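Residues determine shape. Take a concrete instance:
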Amino acid sequence: MNRPARGVKQDRKILRFRMTQSLLRTRLLAAFSLLFFWGTTAHASGSQSLTVSKNDPVMLTAQQVSYDEPNATAIASGHVEVVQGDTILFADKVTYNQNTDMVHAMGHVSVLEPTGDVFFSDDAELKNDMEKGVVKEFRARLKDNSLFAAREARRLSKQVTVMKDVVYSPCKVCQAEAGQPAKEPLWQIAAEKATIDENEKRVRYQNAIMDIYGFPVIYTPYFSHPTPDAPNQSGLLQPQYYHDSILGSVVKEPVYYTFAPNLDMTLTPWYMTNEHPLLETEVRGLSQNGSFYVHGAIADAYNRDDLGDVVPGDWIRGYIEAHGKLQVDKYWDVGLDAEHASDQTVLQFYHFGWQDMLTSRLFAERIEDRSYFSVESLAFQGLTVEDQASASPYILPQANFHFESDPLAAHSRIQLDSNALVLERSQGDTDQRLSTTAAWKLPYITHDGQVFELAASLRGDAYHVSDQITDPTTGAMFNGDTGRVIPQADLNWRYPFISRLGDGKSLMIAPIVEMTASPNLHQTSNIPNEDSQIAELSDINLFSPDRFAGLDQIESGLRGTYGTRGQLQMADEEYLEWLFGQAYQENETSPFPLTSAQVAHYSDYIGRLELKYNAVDVAYSFRLDRQTFAPTSNEVNASYKLKPLSLDATYLSLQNDPLFGDRKEVFGNATFDITPRWAFNLGGRRDLGSSEEEPVNTALPVSALNPLEPTAGTVGLNSGIVFHNECMMVTTMANRSYISQQDVRPSTTFGVTVVLKNFGAQDQQSNASAVAGVGNITAINEGSPINSVQNPVSAAGTTNSGSGGN
């Protein structure tokens, strides 16, 4: 049946309108999502807006939808709402002109993104298939509650967007009270113009000013930083400042260079008022199979005497460390750890650290199932006054092999351990060692829960020794071959008793006996002692069959240990654990020191108690004299962590310790949250064994911020105050060191760190925006440099290589 001509025209008009309406819906939502993303990506650190796919279904609702056929314009008006996916667009009126390819939204325009970002505008236009457009009175609240606004955002192309009269702040803006002016944010960045270049992934500002509570404090004619999604780019990082009573005022200006996505470098010159400049360098690399890191510093420093005073002349001081590891295949790894300092005090003098020994290591290792093999070369550099470089050993090389079989009959296993060592010195004794141990181990559990572990082993050691001093009095030496064979049997017995005391409560008590038998070995000075010089009986090795850490010394004869372990479980975070025992050796001449008297059958009593009760954690390790029960060593570690207070403290008391001798000291840290935004911390270390009571006699002034009177026993003090809110963190610190070592003298260090959210925050060397334009208010704690590897900044007069320059 034929329809009248008028009806056909009407159907075509309706069809054209529906097609136009569908095109309008898609272009409206996509256009605004793209425009608002371009306008905000440079400001929203880490924010990721989602572009809209044209394949997603679009729903448009409005009070009225019409089509102006003479002007080829589709019009939606009255509470217009466009929904596509999780993105929603609101406006009072939206038009689309097919002839000019222009989309125009007017009145209370807002877009809610799936990320939680919300964008606002009074008027927005897009044309030329959304390649160009203008948004007036642009405003946004990002998902991290950052706010920014621009009088106008103009898109010049798909890659470039220009914003005029831009203001950005991540700070909370309080609503003004009735009749009162609007309150200014804590800080904000205002610029005459901001340009976002998607090709270079960079945001550039012109005539930028930082305001604090509405007062302008810093101005720069040029300022730039990468967009949050930008790859690493070269440029300046946040400048650093602190003051030290020895070095003077210290200013650091890190410069970041990127050579590839997986290779970068940071150069940090130090400018000091009391010293020549120093250059610090960090190089980082990463690959699919490995990584490397190099850190070093060098300075043409003043010459100083042992009192720290400057004397005529200069000398080169420096430090370098390198770490790298490469996975060759499924089982093999190779690596390098190297450290070297120009002198014994360079690390302490420039506050790089307080190490007393630097170790360099070149190694290769293989791990497969229960087998392990490694070969390594080692070199040592002592940093104490007693260390002599010519006497330091070189390990060239050392090899270790461990093999353990699968379970055999009765769940037993065979174990093989071997060690080969070549040790050289520039001056002094040298030796080569080959040690191999074959062992058979059998575990057994009785029906009533007793646990037996039986082990039988045979060990052989062979040495070739040169210039080994056998008699220090006469200077007699031994050169030649020597060795020993040690058969050994070991039995460990445990009988744990467990009692359930109720809901989540239990008591476990386990008596333990360890018995070991081997021939009595006569001590000989022909065998060197390189790796077993420090021996200590503690709760860690109490039940071990051989308590020496190395291979050169060995316990021999009949020996044993008896004691008990236990635990009282009161709740998930409430328990009491203990260990107590005593060791016995039949051979009184065994080299392992069971007591401070060296020669004895029975050891002192060894124990450990640990209590965990909610926020309280206390661990007490002790050693009691076997005859008087007087404590010969005590170590107490205590912590309390419950808002607003956090405490960590350690008390240490030692007598005749093989490493530290007689020592008594206490050290710890405390943090108190004064308010949700303010916190105070205090820490220190004090030698309680010092008999001096007079203050340290030094010409260096003590910081007025030091809350304690310095005494001869005080090692160091540190204190600080921290303020933080949603957009800013300020940290102040004052440190005092009383350590004297050659040219390192007691010193006072203080400084302030100011970190602005999204502009200068450190995130473990990743995606941190460092703002060079705020250097006048930024200071960095000594020893805590900010090394951002992404988002460096350039300011007026600087060159930002690799990112298009200024």
Residues 1-20, 28-54, 691-712, 760-806 have pLDDT under 50 and may be disordered.
